Amino acid sequence: MPLMGRGRRRVRDLVTAALLIGAVTVTAAALQDWNSRTLEGTAVVTDGDTIRLMGEPVRLRGIDAPELEQLCIGGDGAEHACGRLSSAYLETLIAARPVACIGHDTDRYGRFLGDCRAGAGATATDLNEAMVASGWAVAYGDHERAEARARGDKRGLWAWEFERPADWRRRVAAETGESVPAGGAGAFVRRARALVGWSGHNE
Fold this sequence. Notes:
By secondary structure, the chain is α+β, with helices and mostly antiparallel strands. Helix content is 42%, strand content 22%. Strands 1, 2, 3, 4, 8, 9 and 10 form a seven-stranded mixed β-sheet that branches.
């Protein structure tokens, strides 16, 4: 087969594969949106990106906060308990107000992925965005502009040196031999949505 013909066939195959992946992603996203649900009630903070609502664990979608045991290092070499500080800041944002979370997916640990707001009406707080904007969480498939502003202003975690939470978890898992659950089909859809510029949740 002439080289030109092979090149055209390869391009055609790549385009077909891309269209197929796009169709599957769009269909899955539509089904997820159709299957969305809301949890409302009094929230109990687990850490900087996870709460319990109506007895169910809820992971704030599109963000990632340091684990409770995670430390940050100041310019003077001092250690700061940034995981616990992040968790405390989320409690401050909620301020004992009722929380409502809407979502349609779960993460690899089976936690409900939600976009969460504390309070109601004009005074309600978008918890996902506020945690990243304050610098106490990093973008994880969404809220990249808020992260850039927080990093530029050295807010929260950005005042110190720190490992991104996902990198910290991978390192600790490797050191301890801890296994990490597979992401499943939901993780594939979220990665695909993030790849094409739709907000998602990396895993």
